[in-house]
Design goal:
Layout: H1 2-19, E1 22-29, E2 40-45, E3 53-56, E4 62-68, E5 71-78, E6 85-91, E7 95-101, E8 121-123, E9 128-131, H2 142-147, E10 153-155, E11 158-160, E12 167-170, E13 173-174, H3 179-187, E14 194-200, E15 214-219, E16 226-237, E17 242-253, E18 257-281, E19 287-315, E20 318-329, E21 335-345, E22 351-377, E23 384-407, E24 413-439, E25 443-466, E26 469-472, E27 478-496, E28 500-517, E29 522-540, E30 546-556, H4 560-563, E31 567-571, E32 574-577, E33 585-596, E34 600-610, E35 613-620, E36 625-632, E37 635-650, E38 653-670, E39 676-694, E40 701-710, E41 713-715, E42 718-720, E43 723-734, E44 739-746, E45 755-760, E46 763-771, E47 775-785
Parallel strand pairs: 1-7, 12-15, 32-36
Antiparallel strand pairs: 1-4, 2-3, 2-5, 5-6, 8-9, 9-14, 10-11, 12-13, 14-15, 16-17, 16-47, 17-18, 18-19, 18-46, 19-20, 19-21, 20-22, 21-22, 22-23, 23-24, 24-25, 25-26, 25-27, 27-28, 28-29, 29-30, 30-33, 31-32, 33-34, 34-37, 35-36, 37-38, 38-39, 39-40, 40-43, 41-42, 42-45, 43-44, 44-47, 45-46
Length: about 800
């Protein structure tokens, strides 16, 4: 047997020596499977019979050696900040090495300063990675970076991807905050230690099936031992009030201990002026009365956010980590003042009466989240076991006082009405998770299990005044208890061929829910098992062109506040209500994309939403009431074509363009019109263009000019008007990039204010909102401590084509 093997090997080597057509291919990644572009790969024969040759990995971490003869080779991979890796290979036929993992080198590099930036955008089989580490974007806060991330839309208190709200993760750990809380957290977090933002449109099986797309914020692990920190601040002036944001970040790395702390405070005062018009109809469909409201709201907040991350290396195989995300909005600085005047007209458009409402609202929020992680690394590189436990304590309370005076047309008093509302919500969330990863030479296997329990208690107590005597309104007071337990398991497999990458997985989740209304003595229970398949395929046609396809099934469970059945009155004539019988929303999402010449990406997508949950505004024509109802609409379909490019037009001019043309079709039940089924359909256009200019040869002065346009779109039954906005920002770096100053204007023409129209059957509502969108801004950041690898005194300056020169 050994003789046959020897002769076979000798024959193959003999024939290969004449053909000289053997090839070695592979890819270079870090431990988190992120590609490492521009790594140096050196190839030499062990006997020195052939000249030593070398190459560098491309922007996907890929490399190849061609026209080789059969021989014993040594491959050596080098990349700054990582340990050099050597492989010996007996080459007898063309060989695909698959993914080669480099390990970070934590040794301090005295006196070396580097500006070697990774390409701005990398597309992996299941996500798009926006790399910002060491770029000038690191002088911003994380929310500013998110506004520049391809495919992400940030505007008017919302963050969306393809018209859907994403779920947020930090270093692959879910952040249990609302969209507004997420924005305040990111605005108060400096991007100094931000490595990349991953946009995962159709998440693989590893991630929870809950929600739509995922934004994973990856914080860098500084490879230098020592300490660094920063202080930062932002000032924004609207036409009414100034707004501030101040914070500080600190990072320490020792031999075994890494520690990160970020604190920020955002004193804000926001003004909003709404114009509202509602036409109420009689049973015969004729106009009965029209209401026109001038609504002015001033909201004062001062949210404190604290983020910490502590990692301790027990030994070379075991790590322990503790992270916290805390957002505190104290009562004394969270106040809302609302004054509104409503003119009531009869069917002949004559003024019938006026009512004036004065609303004073005080809130308090404590959102405290803690995560404990343990990671065991096996002897095989990349093989690891992770265990994570998490606890969130969310405590919210609110008190409002509402006074309304009803007046005749001559302003004499008809009557007045007063009520008060106390509401609170306490949520306790516990999760436990175990994940296992096993890397092969050209494949990756992942599996894991997770259990989570959510316990929520919501209290609403409404008080009315009769002859100045305060009484509990029993009909509009309630306590709602909600408990949800979720068990999940997943398995995922990915394989990397020379031209193809496949990633597929399956996730199963069993959910048990129980909601109880104490005042109504009503219990709603539900349990269901759902299976969520996913598949991602990418074909590298050549060095510049890629084709990819992915499919994912997702679930969106109703929020706890959407399940509360009681009515929360905003004034005498408007209230918000939930539904304990809400069903989970199930989405099917398909995407087909093509990247041309590395810079230009076209993407077709289709999303079918079954039982979407929306807050829909309905007018009760019989009682002249406005209901903000959380309800399931029947279904929603969205499909469209996206085009994205992030390219260099000149050595001092980079362009980012995202445009999308999409069709939105939703079908909903008109609750106030005998539950009649109704459709809204519309083609819409979205475009975002950002220009980056370097104005000085040392790249220390940057100008950013961006323009956003969104045509009229539907949001459930609501039609939103077209909006557009022009932003200008000038940024100057001084003191060897340790200080950055910026000045600019947001929404220069004040054209981002939106109006909405709900008009169908017996519904006719119009809202126009005017906010402080036009803002004059000033910001600064000062970085101190050990930033040796983040400046450009001496070292390497790699000018990649896709590098962000801002």
């Amino acid at each position: 047997m050994r003789l046959k093997l020897f002769l076979g090997t000798l024959l193959i080597g003999f024939l290969s020596g004449f053909s000289q057509e053997l090839q070695i291919t592979g890819s270079i990644t870090d431990a988190s499977r992120q590609p490492i572009p521009f790594a140096n790969i050196i190839l030499e024969t062990l006997d020195g019979s052939q000249p030593t040759t070398g190459t560098v990995s491309d922007d996907q971490g890929m490399f190849s050696f061609n026209d080789l003869i059969a021989a014993m080779y040594r491959i050596e991979i080098r990349y700054l900040g990582f340990k050099t890796k050597s492989l010996d290979l007996n080459l007898t036929q063309s060989t695909a090495l698959g993914s080669i993992i480099l390990i970070e080198d934590t040794q301090e590099l005295d006196g070396v300063t580097v500006m070697a930036k990774r390409p701005t955008i990398n597309r992996l089989v299941d996500r798009l990675v926006f790399n910002v580490e060491n770029s000038t974007l690191s002088n911003n806060n994380v929310l500013d970076v998110l506004k520049h991330t391809p495919g992400v839309f940030v505007n008017d208190g919302n963050i969306s991807i393809k018209q859907a709200i994403p779920t947020f993760y930090i270093n692959d750990r879910r952040v249990h905050l609302s969209v507004n809380e997420i924005q305040r957290l990111l605005e108060g977090t400096t991007a100094t230690n931000l490595k990349s933002i991953e946009v995962i449109t159709n998440p693989p099986a590893k991630y929870e099936a809950e929600g739509g797309a995922i934004i994973n914020i990856v914080m860098s692990k500084n490879i230098i031992a020592g300490y660094n920190g920063s202080v930062f601040g932002n000032f924004k002036q609207g036409y009414q009030y100034p707004k501030y944001s101040l914070g500080t970040s600190h990072f320490f790395k020792g031999k075994k201990l890494n520690a990160y702390l970020n604190f920020s405070d955002s004193p804000q005062k926001e003004f909003r002026n709404n114009k509202e018009r509602i036409n109420f109809f009689s049973d015969q469909g004729d106009l009965a009365t029209s209401w026109e409201t001038d609504y002015k709201r001033t909201r004062k907040t001062s949210d404190k956010s604290i983020n910490t991350n502590i990692n301790y290396e027990l030994d070379k195989h075991n790590n322990l980590g503790l992270s916290t995300n805390m957002l505190i909005a104290p009562r004394e600085s969270t106040k809302t003042f609302v004054n509104s005047t409503t003119d009531v007209f009869d069917s002949n458009k004559l003024l019938d009466s006026t009512f004036v409402t004065d609303n004073r609202l005080v809130d308090e929020t404590y959102n405290l989240a803690f995560t404990l992680d343990y990671e065991h690394k096996f002897n095989k590189e990349g093989e690891k076991l992770s265990i994570s436990t998490h606890h969130t304590n969310y405590d919210f309370s609110s008190f409002q006082n509402v006074d309304t005076d009803y007046l005749f047309p001559d302003n004499t008093l008809i009557r007045n009405n007063r009520f008060q509302t106390f509401s609170s919500q306490l949520i306790q969330l516990y999760t436990g998770q175990l994940d296992y990863e096993f890397p092969g030479t050209s494949f990756q296997f992942e599996t894991g299990v997770k259990v989570s329990n959510i316990n929520s208690k919501s209290i609403l107590t409404q008080y009315v005044f009769n002859d100045n005597t305060k009484e509990i309104d029993e009909d509009n007071s309630d306590t709602f208890l909600y408990d949800e337990t979720n068990y999940s398991a997943y398995a995922s497999f990915s394989k990397d061929w020379d031209k193809w990458i496949l990633k597929t997985g399956l996730r199963a989740e069993y959910t048990d829910t129980r909601g109880q209304s104490l005042s109504a003595n009503q219990i709603n229970s539900n349990d269901y098992l759902k299976v969520f398949p996913s598949i991602h395929i990418l074909n590298r046609i050549n060095d510049k062109n890629e084709l990819y396809f992915n499919y994912k099934k997702r679930i969106y469970r109703p929020r706890y506040s959407q399940l509360n059945p009681f009515k929360y009155f905003l004034n005498d004539n408007a209230f918000v209500t939930g539904d304990p019988n809400l069903r989970p929303q199930i989405d099917d999402v398909l995407t087909l994309g093509y990247t041309f010449n590395k810079d230009f990406t076209f993407e077709l997508y289709y999303r079918y939403e079954n039982n979407p949950t929306l807050q829909v505004v309905f007018q009760d024509n019989e009682n002249n009431l406005i209901k903000y109802s959380n309800t399931n609409i029947d279904r929603s379909i969205t499909y469209g074509l996206d085009f994205t490019t992030y390219t260099k037009l000149d050595k001092r001019w980079n362009l980012y363009l995202l445009s999308s043309i999409f069709f939105y079709d939703n079908q909903f039940f008109a609750i106030e019109s005998n539950n009649q089924l109704y459709n809204n359909k519309k083609w819409s256009l979205y475009a975002n263009v950002i220009n980056y200019f370097n104005l000085l040869t040392d790249k220390s002065l940057d100008l950013e000019v961006s323009f956003l346009y969104i045509s009229s779109v539907y949001d459930g039954p609501k039609a939103l008007s077209a909006i557009s906005g022009l932003n200008l920002n000038l940024r100057k770096s001084i003191l060897q990039n340790k200080v950055a100053l910026s000045i600019g204007v947001q929404d220069a023409f004040n054209s981002l204010n939106v109006s909405s129209t709900t008009r169908y059957l017996n519904q006719d509502l119009f809202y126009k909102s005017s906010e402080e969108n036009r803002l004059f801004t000033f910001g600064f950041i000062y970085k101190f401590g050990n930033f040796n690898l983040r400046t450009n005194n001496k070292g390497i300056d790699l000018e990649e084509r896709e590098r962000l020169n801002r």
